[in-house]
């Protein structure tokens, strides 16, 4: 059968083929338009950066004052997408080994000389990020309560650790109680005392045991963190290390991480929070002269 048109003759099969082709074309266009209409708009440079995923930082710390300072930062960091979890330690070894092994993302309890010695002796690879505070040694009263009226043969308890022993002796020298050999600095020992007019007798003990010796000695030179954790009334302190002293600059306490993680964004947020004006106010109002900000 033939169908006649003005432009010529077409067979039925040809007409059907043309109709099917046109229908298919219209269908594809419609589908394409529908998909486009329903798609989410593509992100552009004007949309801004993607939202940072929340992260959790597990930080090791000794209870006082380090864990207390960190606890004060939880809300601030949470607002910045960082959940702070604090693991408390009662010693100075486990916080470093746990950090090295990846159980912690940071720790906060130690000064540089201790960290450097630990790295050298234990083969760890840990790095200080930012200095936060200094815990000055203080002379606390035991059986006596006046340095100006110190009796002959008075007993003074000091730390048996080489570093803190030297600091203790330097503090006693600043109070005019002893005189050390010139130039011994932070390597001083009792053997370096060249003048001991009050014939002071020294009792050496582990730092954490010094507060318990107070009833048995006239005075004890105690680190700020142990004074706090032992519930000593820190307002009774008779003298403390000068915040501008060599000891203060050398023995500031640092936030520490495994080497290579210093610039991690969450670590940088923690470092900024630890050295903020708000943290300075918290430290001074909470700990008085037992803890001194160094930033």
CATH topology label of the largest domain: D-Maltodextrin-Binding Protein, domain 2
Uncertain regions spanning at least 5 consecutive residues: 1-51
Number of strands: 15
Strand content: 15-25%
| Total domain modules | 2
Distance from N terminus to C terminus (CA atoms, Å) equals 100 Å
| Helix/strand/pairing category | alpha/beta
What is the helix fraction of residues, given as a range? 25-40%
* Widest beta sheet: strand line-up: 4-3-5-14-6-15
State mean pLDDT (0 to 100 scale). Answer: 86
**Can you tell me the CATH superfamily of the largest domain?**
Periplasmic binding protein-like II
CATH architecture of the largest domain: 3-Layer(aba) Sandwich
> Biggest sheet: strands, sense, closure?
6 strands, mixed
Helix segment count?
11
What is the approximate shape? elongated
List the secondary-structure elements in sequence, H or E: EEHEHHEHEHEEEHEEEHEHEHEHHE
Top CATH class of the largest domain: Alpha Beta
Instruction: Evaluate the radius of gyration.
Output: 35 Å
Give me the secondary-structure topology.
Elements: E1 3-4, E2 9-10, H1 12-38, E3 55-61, H2 63-71, H3 74-78, E4 82-88, H4 94-100, E5 106-111, H5 112-122, E6 126-134, E7 137-141, E8 155-159, H6 162-174, E9 179-180, E10 193-195, E11 201-205, H7 210-213, E12 219-223, H8 224-229, E13 239-240, H9 246-250, E14 253-258, H10 265-274, H11 277-287, E15 292-293
Parallel strand pairs: 3-4, 3-5, 8-11, 8-12
Antiparallel strand pairs: 1-2, 5-14, 6-14, 6-15, 7-12, 7-13, 9-10
Index terms:
single chain, 295 residues, alpha/beta, D-Maltodextrin-Binding Protein, domain 2, 2 domains, 6-stranded mixed β-sheet, 5-stranded mixed β-sheet, 11 helices, 37% helix, elongated
């Amino acid at each position: 059968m033939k169908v006649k048109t003005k432009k010529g003759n077409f067979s039925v099969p040809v007409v059907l083929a043309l109709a099917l082709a046109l229908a298919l074309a219209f269908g594809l266009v419609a589908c394409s338009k529908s998909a486009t209409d329903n798609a989410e708009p593509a992100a552009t440079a004007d949309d801004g950066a993607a939202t940072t995923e929340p992260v959790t930082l597990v930080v090791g710390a000794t209870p006082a004052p380090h864990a207390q300072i960190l606890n004060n930062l939880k809300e601030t960091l949470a607002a910045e997408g960082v959940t702070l979890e604090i693991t408390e330690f009662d010693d100075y070894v486990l916080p470093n080994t746990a950090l090295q092994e990846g159980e912690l993302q940071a720790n906060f309890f130690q000064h540089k000389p201790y960290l450097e010695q630990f790295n050298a002796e234990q083969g760890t690879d840990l790095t200080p990020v930012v200095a936060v505070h200094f815990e000055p040694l203080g002379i606390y009263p035991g059986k006596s309560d006046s340095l100006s009226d110190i009796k002959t043969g008075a007993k003074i308890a000091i730390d048996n650790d080489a570093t803190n022993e030297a600091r203790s002796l330097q503090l006693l020298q600043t109070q005019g109680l002893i005189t050390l050999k010139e130039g011994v600095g932070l390597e001083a020992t009792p053997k370096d005392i060249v003048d001991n007019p009050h014939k002071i007798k020294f009792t050496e003990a582990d730092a954490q045991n010094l507060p318990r010796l107070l009833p048995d000695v006239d005075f004890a030179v105690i680190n700020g963190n142990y004074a706090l954790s032992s519930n000593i009334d820190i307002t009774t302190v008779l003298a403390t290390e000068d915040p501008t002293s060599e000891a203060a600059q050398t023995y500031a306490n640092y936030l520490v991480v495994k080497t290579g993680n210093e610039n991690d964004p969450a670590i940088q947020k923690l470092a900024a929070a630890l050295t903020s004006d708000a943290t300075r106010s918290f430290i001074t109002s909470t700990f008085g002269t037992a803890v001194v900000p160094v930033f």
